[in-house]
Amino acid sequence: MVSAYLPSLLAGALTTLCLALSSLAIAIVLGLAGASGRLSRRPAVRAIATAYTTIVRGVPDLVLMLLIFYGGQRLINFAIEKLAPGHYVDVNPFAAGIATIGFVYGAYLGETFRGAFLAIPAGQAEAALACGMSTLQVLRRVTGPLMLRHALPALSNNWLVMLKSTAIVSVIGLPDLMQRAGLAAGATREPFVFYIAAGGVYLVITVISETLLQAWQRRLRVGTREVRL
Fold first, then answer.
1. Domain assignment present for 125
2. Can you give the pLDDT at residue 171?
3. How far apart are CA 129 and CA 105, in angstroms?
4. Do residues 98 and 22 touch, judged by C-beta distance below 8 A?
5. What is the pLDDT of residue 228?
6. pLDDT score for 227
């Protein structure tokens, strides 16, 4: 039974994976911006970054998804109506999903990166500046790699949670893994079978992700010595 719908489920899994990777890219950019804002010496910038991370982490993902998809569509069409009457734009569910998930997890990664930057001894950057490096060189050669080493465990966890959170895009009509599993379940009246199959696909992606991320962590720890208290 599942074999007949396997191509559809695999196509949905590919959509889910593309959605998750694209959202991760946006989340990393917003996370770095949020962390920089939280660590800024300017009170206004620090307040904006704090408001972003606090509010977004306090609102359910589904609520933000519906607000961005439906509310954003209304705002865009309101603006278009003013500029070009008679025209209408449909917001792409894939783009709305990427924007929402990236926006949400950018707040979580902002706190992750902020903690990772704070874990770096101040003397590391000061020594690099004393050697004549520019601020960008210090970030690229010293604080950036050290920050990544501290942030990677939490970043890995956020990636796995984000991967599962992509399931909410099915509510806005994106043909992802969960929506295709739901259509197959409705057509065959075997929801248990197809939702178990969808869960199995998520599990496979998760296991592969964990394997790759653990290998990356081991690579970053090369040349370091773990101190146990």
1. yes
2. 85
3. 32
4. yes
5. 47
6. 44
Q: Which two tokens mark 179? A: 């929506």
The single residue listed with the structure tokens 């929506």 is 179
Orientation of helix 177-188 relative to helix 2-38, angle to 10° = 150
Task: Please list the ranges in the chain whose pLDDT falls under 70.
Answer: 223-229
Calculated CA dihedral for residues 122, 128, 130, 136, nearest 10 degrees: -100
- Report yes or no on 59 lying in a domain: yes
Residue type, position 59, single letter: V
Residue 204 lies in a domain: yes
Q: Residue 48: give its domain's CATH number.
A: 1.10.3720.10
> Does 225 reside within a domain?
no
Residue carrying the six token digits 């990544």: 148
Biggest distance spanned by C-alpha atoms of the chain:
69
Alpha carbons within 13 angstroms on the beta-carbon side of residue 112 total: 24
Tell me the CB-side half-sphere exposure of residue 202, using CA atoms within 13 A.
21
Q: Which pLDDT score, from 0 to 100, does residue 91 have?
A: 80
CA–CA dist 200, 206 (Å, integer) = 10
Q: Which domain holds residue 23?
A: 2-220
Instruction: Name the nearest CA neighbour of 23 among 215, 195, 178, 176.
Output: 176
Q: What is the pLDDT of residue 223?
A: 64
Q: Which residues of 89-117 are buried (b: 16+ CB within 10 A; e: fewer)?
A: eebebbebbbbbbbbbbbbbbbbbbbebb
- DSSP label at residue 142: I
Hey, what amino acid is at 119? A
**What pLDDT, on a 0 to 100 scale, did the predictor assign at position 226?**
54
**Domains contained in the chain, number:** 1
The pLDDT, as a whole number, for residue 55 is 92
